[in-house]
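Data availability (excerpt). The following record was deposited with the supplementary files.
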Amino acid sequence: MKVGLTVFPINPTFLFPLARRVDELGYESIWVGEHVVIPAQGQSEHPYGGGPGPLPTTPLYDPLLTYAFIAAQTQRLKLGTSVYLLALRHPIMAARLITTLDRISGGRLLLGLGAGWLKEEFEVQDVPWGHRGPRLDENIAVMRRLWKEDRVAHHGRFYRFDEVGFAPKPLQGTVPILIGGETPPALRRAARTGDGWLGVTHTPESAAQRVQELKVMRETAGPFEITVTSESIPTIDDVHRFRDAGVHRLTFGGRLLSGGQKTVEAMLSGLERFADEIIRKIDA
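Predicted structure:
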């Protein structure tokens, strides 16, 4: 079982020392969310949080640029996006940024993608909300071709371009794509096109149900990584129960480790305590 930390919003004051320390302590991964902009007049409610989501005053940092800085300071830590809003980007530009991070990090990027939930964020950037799912599918298909083929031409529904070359390729020939979301379209997309699935908060029982649903939906065999989030700091028993449910990676909020204190020192202390009490015992 792999254990990772989720962080949103990104605060470099906390994130950079946290990333260096979790790398040293043996955590498998760190996961950051993304918004490009928060419209001031947004009416959309977060589908999993039951509220309006981040405020327009929330400081936002680009996850790929942030990870480039972290990659230079860490050795083993996997760098996950949860989730990157690919439908807001042109696939060639996105593929270039993603490949650059993959190469400079030594192949440590885990690309979590989602269709997005904040309608106004798409509208303010002139991206039709109703097309975000098909646009995401087309973007993924174009990026995977750019990562594998010597020459690529594409004439699709949303993007059209004549033959181009694309180099360098990702270190492992591709970048792992994990599809996030709990809606039926998100689950179908994960089963159809993903290398894995990113779930939100689950219990071992609810995770087991999702695992079975995805098994039924998947049309091909092969590796498929299940990642879900625990709403609290997991115990060793929790970790084992999630593993038995078919989960490959369990994440939880890094802020939970600080014991309510908003200091770097408190968070680092919590990281060390969890590593001693849980991570080192998972495979013991």
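Summary of structural features: The chain has a mean pLDDT of 94.
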